[in-house]
Dihydropteroate synthase
Amino acid sequence: MIGVLNVTPDSFSDGGRYVRRSDAVRHGIEMRGQGADLVDIGGESTRPGAERVDAETEVSRVVPVIRELAAAGVAMSIDTTRASVAAAALEAGAVVVNDVSGGLADPAMAKVVAEAGCPWILMHWRGHSRRMQDLATYENVVAEVRAELAQRVDQALAAGVRPDRLVIDPGLGFAKKAEHNWQLTRHLGELLTLGYPLLFAASRKSYLGALLAAPDGAPRPAGEREAATIATSVLAVAAGAWGVRVHDVRGTVDALQVWAASGAPRLATA
Ligand code: PMM
């Protein structure tokens, strides 16, 4: 279970809430207490259309928070596509790199991860946020995402990253239309045949807002997509996902406890 902590003014769901360091640290400790195994710290918004910030800004947002949370014993991943930010975050106490570009955005990332020997979450990605929705064209989204993730894995291995350090992620909402996200959700088992643990990160994403739209077509606001998020997370874990990345840790932990206690079978695992 990974809890989301965006130290940004503009992320689509929690943007602006944790810009103050004390608020961010308090929320990170709270999520750990609720059952988050990792708190995922991001200093750059990746919402569709977002403009980039420079590396110095990203580092100045995340490093002080990472230092304080590390001192409090909280395990963290750094959500970044930049090798320099990942290196600074690892040095400050993060233990996992969560790279939404799967190593594509920064050719130096693989070396940083290989040298650190840390786990690396490789997400399926086709381009930066400003243009990513133009890249959401597929003949067969499941086969193409699987093939592109396999390339990311091969590149990571070629750079010397150990196979037991890799986690794959279908990248819901990143160069994906709603129907692509649903297809991937339906066919997680095909991605699991790559043989790596899979992270599923649907939390509060806009395709859930579209699903729950009001009769006039207005999407459900991001903060009111929690029940839908929990439902997708439970379905993903039941289908064999290794982990989920969510904003509401407590609700997700509760739901997964119900699922585990029910004895319902896991459909597949990597
Ligand atoms: N989505 C966001 C950010 N980071 N990391 C991974 N591994 N997978 C995702 O789908 C993902 C991510 C989107 O933004 P948010 O931080 O506001 O949820």
